[in-house]
Amino acid sequence: MRNRRALCGCVLLGLLLSLSIAGPLVSPWGWDDTDFTAFRQGPSARHWFGTTPSGRDVFALTLRGAQKSLLIGVSVAVVSTGLAALFGTVAGFVGGWTDRVLMWGVDLLLVLPSLLVLAVLSPRLGGHWLLLVPLLAAFLWMVTARAVRAMTLSVRERESVLAARFLGVGTPRLIARHIVPQLASLLVVDASVNVSVAVIAESALSFLGIGVRAPDVSLGTLIADGRGAATTYPWPFGCAAGLLVLIVLAVNLLGDGLRDVLDPLSPSRGGGR
Amino acid sequence: MNVLEVTDLRVGFAPDVQAVRGVGLSVGQGEVLGIVGESGSGKTALALAVMGLLPEGTRTSGSVRLRGEELLGRSDRELSRVRGKDLAMVFQDPLSALTPVYAVGDQIAETIRIHSGATRAAARARAVELLDLVGIPGAARRARAYPHEFSGGMRQRVMIAMAIANDPVAILADEPTTALDVTIQAQVLDVLRVAKEATGAAIVLITHDLAVVAGFADRVMVMYAGRAVESGPVDEIYRRPRMPYTIGLLQSLPRVDGPAGEGAARGRRAPIEGPPSGAAPPPARCPFLPRCPVADAACAAAEPEPILVGPGGHVAACVNTSATADPAAVFPVPDVAVPPPARRPRRERPIVLEVADLVRHHPVYRGALLRRRAGSVHAVDGVGFDVREGETLALVGESGCGKTTALMEILRLARPQRGRVAVLGEDTAALSPARRKALRRDVQVVFQDPFTSLDPRMRVADILAEPLTTHGLPIGRRVEELLDLVGLEPAHAGRYPHGLSGGQRQRVGIARALALEPRLLLLDEPVASLDVSVQAGVMDLLEELRARLGLAYLFVAHDLAVVRRIADRVAVMHLGRIVEIGSVDEVYGAPAHPYTRALLDAVPLPDPFLERRRRRVPLRGDPPDPTDPPPGCRFRSRCPRYTALDAVESRLCDEHDPRPRAVGHDADRSVACHHPLIAAKVEL
Amino acid sequence: MAAFLLRRLANYAVLVVLAASLAYLLAAAALTPRANYEGRAPRPPEAVVDAQLTRFNLNDRTPLAERYGTWVAGLARGDFGRTWQGEPVNAELWRRLGVSLRLLVLGAVLGSALGVLAGAYAAVRRGRTADLLVTFLSYLVLAVPVFVLAVLLQIVASRTNQATGLRVFEWVGETTPGASDGPFGALGGLGDRVRHLLLPTATIALAQFALYSRYQRSMMLDVLQADFVRTARAKGLRRRDALLRHGLRTALIPMTTYFAYTSGLLLLGGMFTEKLFGWHGVGEWLIDSVTRGDVNAVAAVNCVAAAAVLLAGMASDVMYGVLDPRVRTGAVA
Q: Which candidate, A28, A61, A58, places its Cα nearest to that of A234?
């Protein structure tokens, strides 16, 4: 990988991933352990990042939260990019009424207040964190789908695709063999961008108390818990917030780097779709 | 006196890419220097280096002197006082070269105000004068229009007006007519001539087209691989070229006035084999060596220096000038491997493709946001012709005449909006999906751009196998056979398209089309995006394949010289209609429609002597709006003959749309004109 | 243009109505204002609660369709209904809308304008220190969610206040009660408001700055290589002038579509900012109303939000038309 940004993002993300996986293995404390001898302490040899007011180990908690946030973020990105690829190519390639109906649905979803829907639905679905994935994904695929559709429209008219069509190649194979590969770079880049959006969205919801909920933790809940005392006792807040920022930064770097590598002529270079 | 002098100019991009390697030139006041080169020869880098407009990080050395003052190495601030005032430039693509958000009058006025400090009103008035000078009708009104509201030719006129706004000493024109149709090209060259006379400026005209330079330039410089390989007075270069590259280029050029006849008798041009060398770091040898037929040991020893070979400062960078004393003997005329089989008379051959009264209208939406339906483009508006086995019918016409649309309509193999398309006797309107797929084996297509028509993610072998797998045919050794058929090596099968040169890619495209052994091949400008020296090889291949495989071609092209070279019959299209159809020899020899005549007149000849003697009546203005074709004859607004008609005769043109009718001696020739240039066949 | 705008407006109106209806139905079906009464001590009799809820059209025992009908009928008169405590939603909505606008407009304008300038400048100075600085800053800020950014700013502010011993920064609410009664009168009140505005505005402006600078930088990079910039230099403009007069002007066009996209993000960011800085704006109201199960308030805020998003879309269309003559005069597309 020649791109410096992509390399930076990759290395950083790799470090964060291995930390969140290996960290709990080396930490002497479990994320749900409570140390009744240490409440609200600063970092020490016993508790590397200090403890919360209720005596839980900040290091273990933060890593547990990061695990959850990453897991949710990646799953949401994969699901939403898949949805976008499906609806985008179908709308673009089939055209006509299918296209109109799908795009109108996209418009509607964009206008619908996602926060309200999430806030209302998420407590009603039992609150298991896995259920957050389809919910978040349902509100993240629209912008990518539009980009996929626009690109399908132009790819469809490319001479290489026309040539295949005039050879008699059927529609499903045409989409699978000639259209999707040409969209691959867009999809890879958008999937990585969606990871960062999903991580932020998940932690935002958890911050408001409508995402991951107690006793489980995510970076969002940790930030919310630590916020009140952040000015006087910054450890729980700082660790969770710092890790969140690093994750998003790494994913953004990776996504932008990939975009430059895969898609040097993309008009939407630099994000914003 | 030389106003612009360049000596030993070198331009380097990335660490190891040398675009220009020691080029020198000089142009005097009122003189025109033509620089000719194929893609990658460094001609554009040369122009930008002279202007000081190369991107940052480019290494430039040597000397560029304008009226004795050195320009190279000056700061942007100092150069900006020279650029646009003494030294002006006309760019290739006039749409992207004009700022889309400002009115053209303002853009010209800006040029004036930068250098003279004129008042806004004075500059505007001068801008209108300039627009009038370059022949834009209604200049005062059009000055307030934006670039997108102009046609390509009109935009290029605006560019020229901008270039001459401050009476420059020298004008660089980089491919100023390449993006334009041939009739518009003739107009723009005339404007450039006017501009030269109005300013007395020296002009450097950069082009890939030897024919454009022939009638316009005083001196010519031929570039190859970043070097000037030959230069001298225009007559010398065209009459007695001494560098093998120049010779090959001139000989491979198709000409509208070429000899008539079929196959070899038509005068096969000796092609320059192989792709032009890229800008790789040059070894110390003649860069043309790998392609040169008269190379010897001395050529590999060192890069040859230019030596004087003729009068008027005619120099050529060749060590073997003794071998090039007779240009005609340099490239051996290849033996014709397969003598063209004696074809049966046209009437006896079966019809492969029959098109009758084909219509295709596109809806037109105007505006990007205010998308409202604004009528429809009459892209194809009642076209009829037939193609018989073993022959090539060419559809020619300017851009927007509907030739490619007609091709695509045939390729769809579906019911047309109106009219009838029959392939091998089967009406496409009545095809079942299975039958349509089966018929696709007989009708294949080759596209214009070999860079976009091959999927960059597939290997050549996969590209060639796809048609076979699609139709459930065994692959076997077919891929190798196909590669061999189009003159490629078996080793090419493992490559990706980006590992091939343009000509090689186009050969792969042809091989893919031939994989299913079709009987009809539709070719959409198959050589238009190739360099001249590569064009010749691909056209030879197409001719050979047609003869060997008994194919029929429908060949869409804008280049009348290419059509002359390859087609048996030609159909001239104008605004969605065929205005004239007939055998190439008859149509080119004695055009019956004034439009055909004008098109042929507008094609420049690669011969300075003939070019200067030609009397041509250029077409005026642009083609009419295809969404709203005028009543009566659609060509009359531009027709040179129409203006010479009396009132009674011209009323016919005003009121009646001419229908095609037979003309001349040939039964298959017809013309859609009320007043054809040759006598109509007496109808019995 | 006018006819086109009207048609767009009609299309948008349909979308707003649909979105608002869906939001109402969802809120009405899922939220339980009844819990607010039942949680009271002493617990009021069932019949009283029912009557109260019915009066405010909040009774979950009334069929959903009927409640929706009542809501739509009210909306047709421009009445958003009542909160669960019986106060009119309209009055509260307008009051809070004012608060939100005071917060958002300044931050958004400041952030986007600075972002566009910085992005353009960074592109022109590509690879130099200025570019690296702007790029680094925008990357960093983009990676910091608003609710973290706000808290970080609060920490910095509190440290500054401690260090200087003055209350330079304020981060709770819009005003300090009684600020304009001080020795400086109304002027002191204004100063107090400015101090309260500082941090939340900075939060919003920073987030907008990061988005806009990054996007404008890449748009500008595309334009740097454009043929028309080269033409402008060939005319005799210096590089900087050519880029400013021809490049920046053209690179602004795609920003108009971006404007519509970021306005949605702005609303979300504004919500968190209000909540975290104790501004009693619309966003905070939405969050609180969802937790309180206040159906009518939630529906009203969503109506306004949907309308705002679509208004932004319209505004971006209009800006597009104003900036790009190709749209205005209708090229053949």
A: A58
